[in-house]
Amino acid sequence: MASGGASAPGAAHLSSKVELTVSCENLMDMDVFSKSDPLCALYINTSGSHWYELGRTEMILNCLNPKFSRRFVLDFLFETVQRLKFCVFDIDNKTHDLSDDDFLGELECTLGQIVSNRQMTRPLLLSNRRPAGNGTITICAEEITDTRAASLEVSARSLDRKCLWWSDPFLEFYKPTAAGWQLAHRTEVVRNSLHPTWRPFSLSLRALCGGDVDTAVKVDCYDHHANGSHALIGSFKASVAEMQMGTHISPAEFECVNPKKVKKKTYKNSGVICIKRCQIVKEFTFLDFIMGGCQINFTIAIDFTGSNGDPSSPQSLHYINPEGSNEYLTAIWAVGSVIQDYDSNKMFPVFGFGAQIPPSWQVSHEFPINFNPADPFCAGIEGVVLAYQRCLPQLKLWGPTNFAPIINHAACFARQAFQQRVASQYFVLLIITDGVITDMDRTRTAIVEASRLPLSIIIVGVGGADFSAMEFLDSDDTLLQSPGGDVAARDIVQFVPFRDFRGNSVALAQSVLAELPDQVASFFNSYKLRPPNVPSASAPS
Question: Do 481 and 454 contact (CB within 8 A), yes or no?
Answer without folding.
Answer: no
